[in-house]
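Quick question, first post here. What does this chain look like in 3D?
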Amino acid sequence: MNKEKTIRPLDDVLVLELGETIGAAMTGLLFAQLGARVVRIDQDVDDSLAHRGALAGQNPDKLSTSYVAYNRGKESLHLSTDREADRAAILGLADQADIIVDAGVLTHLGVTPVDDMVLAETRIVVSITPFGLVGPYAGMEATDLVLEAMGGLMNMVGDPEREPHRLGGNQPQVTAAFSAYTGALAALRHRDATGQGQLVDVSIMDAVAYIEWKGPAFYETDGIVRRRARGRSPWVILRTADGHVGVVYNQSSWEGFKSLVAIKELQEDSRFSTEKGRLANAPEINALLEPWFAERNKRDIYHKAQTLGVPVGCFFDVPEVINDPQEQARGFFESTLQPGVGDILVPGAPFRTEAFPTHVGAAPLPGENQQVLNDIDSHLAPDPRGRKND
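> Answer (accepted):
Ran it through. Tokens below.
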């Protein structure tokens, strides 16, 4: 008996991915996980994603871990914006795409994201740039460090007596990818309803500022500038026998917290009986807590706290996250067989679905799918996954 073919939401969507940024690559990956056919243009540039950062194992092609992780389930063409024939091929692909994800490549082709050549009546162009396409900073370059700083996020991270700290990973790029993905899906829905495509303009600085949304709200309502804080807060990080935990002893959980630690002074000292008093005397509370937490394991503390309704969280490193029973139960991490590398474990889609799968295959080698160009003058080559391109 034939199994019914699984249909994914974006099976009939063709995405052209232009750019060497993690933001563009992750946006393309999110589309691939919903079934879109994603064709990526890989170029020989100094800072190409294929060779940027740590290698994925000892693979003979010297592909980076970032390239392998973010380009799963795509096709790759090796084309250069410096060659006239390649520029024409890229624009030919752009003319057939439903969505163009662009991280600045279009300008090297002599067009802009709003030119009629690429922004056709039904086409969606997603532009991901440091500062967006409008404003005095449009067209300027920036790193993730610059964008975290100028987006206001670093103002909230670190010890107030020292310089601000940046968040780990590629937070601005990841946040921009989700912004681009959300905007593009909304544009697709709009196209379904009206038949019209549009430009989705993503500023990474905007995306970073969106993370720290409470800052502007506090500032506009009562003039308070939120800054890095230490000591006088119900939020505290405490060392345990095997690591650290994050603890919040707010009003709603204070009784449960006192039961958790069973420290006599917390029960009897009137300074700690109100939330205002606890904030004023937070350093004294933390000094009482430190020995108790230092003698216990973080998971034991976590599980006991949960039974009392107290928000306590363990600090996990990567192996602990991967092997945590919560993530194991959800199957969030996926194993993918990458040619030349072997099995690699990567995060799956950041959501679970029942009706359709989101797992995608290995990343292509740069330029592995040059056959896509065979019929570029008439129509896109057949989808190697067996799907029809209309």
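The longest strand covers residues 37-42.
The radius of gyration is 25 Å.
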